């Protein structure tokens, strides 16, 4: 019984202690040997007792043996049952120990595998992102001097976990649809474009964040575009970024949201400036074109100093700006996206909070009734390569072109040349000057001039020959017809021609006479008729020089001055540019052909000859300048002309839109 109790205690010990398992095996082996031995001895004694009983004692011993045998059998049964239970307990204990050892080995392998994976993946799966917050905030402002929006970004990570660090990571957020990082500005280091959550976005490198720590970076991000997003995405993300490979891996979503107001980005940009553009045109009689006097006022209420920017107003289709020596600096033309033209005026430098005014006097050409008005003023940045839009601000624009109603600049001047060479007796030399400018922008066909000399003078009929072939002149009696041909818009002619004639009047009497000059367009349509009274002039004048107003410049009467040109008819002579003489022969001198290969002949004073023609030489001179002098070896009939631009310059170049870096 005691053995049975010991065996049961041993079983319980083995079942609950791996160490005891080994001891149990040893004890059980000893117990088994002892039991076997014990069983084996008891069986031998029984057999011996059975084989040698005494006769008298046979029944008694038999009963005793039977009783002992039954006890032994019972004990053997009990021992066998205990042994079975012990063996079963031992087997269970062994199985449990083996299972625990297997479980321990598997746990160690898993732990080793997890360690290796942690080393390979930088332990990203171990980051507890529930305790990590991401943030992206900042203010967006337009930078005048850079020409784009700037996001003053604060981005960072806050790690509330007490037992983890975040190393070599990037925080990311989306941009609204329609907004993007501008290529015009400098992209700071540590910022990359990404696509995340189905939108474009930015990733920002964050310094290593310690446990229970926080790190933030501050950057200026150039932005462009306008927010157009009805499904905003505000979440923050943690990334691994391989800049060299141009790839990234999303680790997970962080707590926290993007807090940036993109609604301040508008197109056009709304600038915190205030001011006005006002102007009006006036016609300059001397120069023969209009000037636009325009004044710009501007007040800077932005947070920046304003410099190197232009404001602009639209230019009517029938008006052009002229570039010449009278054009002010800091005025230029631009061609807008819609094909229209505008005049851009540079603002003076405006410190923050300052207000200034500047006035420009701009030569313009055209005919218009337009008044340009607007409630907004556009602002541009302009370089040699083009212009870029900066934005606009609320303001007042009123530029009045309605006074541009003068279509033609037309002037004529009739001169009695007091020192005309080679004249004698009652002969006189005359010079007829003209200036015609088409101030309109439209081309005009068949422009002609008609000079009607009063009947008190009898023009000696000249014959003109010129190989340039740009214009012609014909005389019928005292009427000269000058054909200039087609005339482009904003261009014109300036020239003169000469003739000789006779009169019974003196020089002073001739000065009171007028030449009637008529301008025609389209052949026979009269544009304007003016009177050009005779004035005294000299041979070397350019035709449109000042009148000398001196009645004593020529001797008049029978003794005409000059050293060239006999009186025609019976008194032909030779010579050039000499002082000449009052006799029939004249003198000799040097030819002056500075006006080109002009060859002039006179039909010997025979009024019955056919009409004659002469061509007008052309020049690309922008300003006209002094007209060259030409004399010939016969009667000097001089004709020269210039094609000129109305304002003595060129039409303004209009810049196209471009990219400014």
From TrEMBL:
Compositional bias per record (Low complexity), positions renumbered to this chain: 590-603
Transmembrane segments: 635-654
Signal peptide location: 1-23
InterPro entries, A to Z: LPXTG_anchor (IPR019931)
Principal subcellular localization: secreted
Topology in the lipid bilayer: Peptidoglycan-anchor
Start-end of Acidic residues biased regions: 26-36, 42-57, 65-90, 97-126
UniProt biased composition (Gly residues): 554-589
Superkingdom of this protein's organism: Bacteria
Segments of this protein annotated with the region Disordered: 25-127, 543-628
Keywords recorded for this protein, A-Z: Cell wall, Membrane, Peptidoglycan-anchor, Secreted, Signal, Transmembrane, Transmembrane helix
All copies of domain Gram-positive cocci surface proteins LPxTG, residue ranges: 620-657
Compartmental location: Secreted, Cell wall
Transmembrane helix among keywords: yes
Keyword Signal: yes
Protein name stated in the entry: LPXTG-motif cell wall-anchored protein
Lineage, opening ranks: Bacteria, Bacillati, Bacillota, Bacilli, Bacillales
């Amino acid at each position: 019984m005691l053995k049975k109790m010991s065996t049961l205690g041993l079983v319980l010990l083995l079942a609950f202690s791996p160490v005891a398992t080994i001891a149990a095996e040893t004890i059980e082996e000893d117990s088994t040997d002892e039991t076997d031995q014990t069983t084996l001895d008891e069986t031998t004694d029984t057999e011996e007792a059975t084989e040698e009983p005494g006769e008298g004692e046979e029944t008694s011993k038999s009963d005793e043996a039977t009783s002992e045998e039954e006890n032994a059998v019972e004990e053997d049964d009990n021992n066998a049952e205990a042994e079975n239970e012990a063996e079963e307990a031992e087997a269970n204990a062994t199985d449990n120990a083996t299972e625990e050892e297997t479980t321990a080995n598997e746990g160690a392998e898993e732990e080793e595998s997890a360690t290796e994976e942690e080393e390979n993946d930088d332990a990203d799966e171990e980051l507890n992102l529930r305790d990590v917050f991401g943030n992206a905030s900042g203010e967006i402002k337009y930078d005048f001097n850079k020409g784009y929006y700037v996001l003053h970004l604060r981005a960072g990570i806050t790690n509330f976990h007490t037992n983890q660090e975040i190393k070599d990571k990037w925080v990311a957020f989306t941009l609204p649809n329609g907004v993007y990082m501008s290529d015009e500005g400098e992209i700071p280091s540590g910022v990359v474009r990404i696509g995340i959550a189905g939108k474009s976005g930015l990733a920002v490198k964050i310094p290593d964040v310690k446990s229970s720590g926080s790190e933030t970076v501050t950057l200026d991000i150039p932005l462009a575009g306008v927010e157009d997003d009805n499904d905003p995405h505000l979440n923050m993300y943690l990334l691994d970024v391989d800049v060299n490979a141009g790839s990234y891996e999303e680790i997970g979503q962080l707590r926290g949201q993007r807090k940036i107001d993109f609604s301040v980005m508008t197109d056009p940009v709304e600038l915190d400036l205030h001011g006005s553009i006002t102007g009006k045109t006036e016609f300059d009689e001397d120069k023969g074109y209009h000037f636009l006097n325009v004044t710009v006022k501007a007040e800077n209420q932005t947070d920046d100093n304003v410099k190197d920017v232009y404001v602009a107003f639209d230019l009517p289709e029938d008006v052009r700006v002229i570039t010449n020596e009278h054009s002010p600096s800091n005025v230029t033309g631009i061609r807008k996206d819609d094909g229209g033209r505008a005049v851009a005026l540079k603002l003076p430098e405006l410190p923050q909070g300052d207000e200034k005014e500047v006035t420009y006097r701009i030569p313009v050409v055209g005919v218009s009734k337009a008044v340009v008005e607007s409630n907004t003023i556009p602002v541009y940045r302009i370089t040699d390569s083009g212009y870029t839009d900066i934005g606009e601000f609320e303001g007042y624009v009123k530029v009045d072109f309605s006074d541009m109603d003068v279509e033609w600049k037309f002037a004529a001047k009739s001169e009695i040349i007091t020192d005309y060479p080679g004249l004698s007796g009652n002969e006189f030399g005359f010079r007829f000057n003209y200036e015609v400018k088409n101030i309109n922008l439209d081309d005009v066909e068949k422009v002609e001039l008609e000079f009607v000399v009063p009947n008190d003078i009898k023009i000696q009929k000249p014959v003109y020959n010129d190989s340039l072939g740009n214009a012609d002149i014909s005389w019928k009696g005292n009427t000269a017809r000058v054909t200039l041909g087609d005339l482009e818009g904003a261009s014109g002619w300036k020239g003169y021609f000469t003739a000789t004639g006779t009169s019974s009047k003196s020089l002073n009497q001739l000065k009171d006479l007028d030449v009637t000059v008529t301008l025609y367009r389209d052949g026979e349509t009269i544009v304007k008729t003016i009177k050009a009274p005779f004035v005294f002039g000299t041979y070397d004048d350019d035709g449109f020089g000042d009148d000398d107003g001196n009645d004593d410049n020529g001797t008049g009467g029978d003794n005409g001055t000059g050293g060239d040109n006999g009186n025609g008819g019976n008194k032909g002579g030779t010579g050039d540019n000499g002082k000449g003489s009052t006799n029939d022969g004249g003198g000799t001198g040097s030819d002056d052909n500075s006006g080109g290969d002009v060859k002039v002949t006179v039909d010997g004073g025979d009024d019955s000859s056919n009409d004659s023609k002469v061509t007008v030489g052309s020049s690309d001179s922008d300003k006209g300048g002094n007209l060259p002098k030409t004399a010939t070896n016969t009667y000097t009939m001089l004709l020269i002309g210039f094609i000129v631009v109305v304002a003595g310059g060129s039409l303004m170049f209009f810049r196209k839109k471009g990219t400014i870096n």
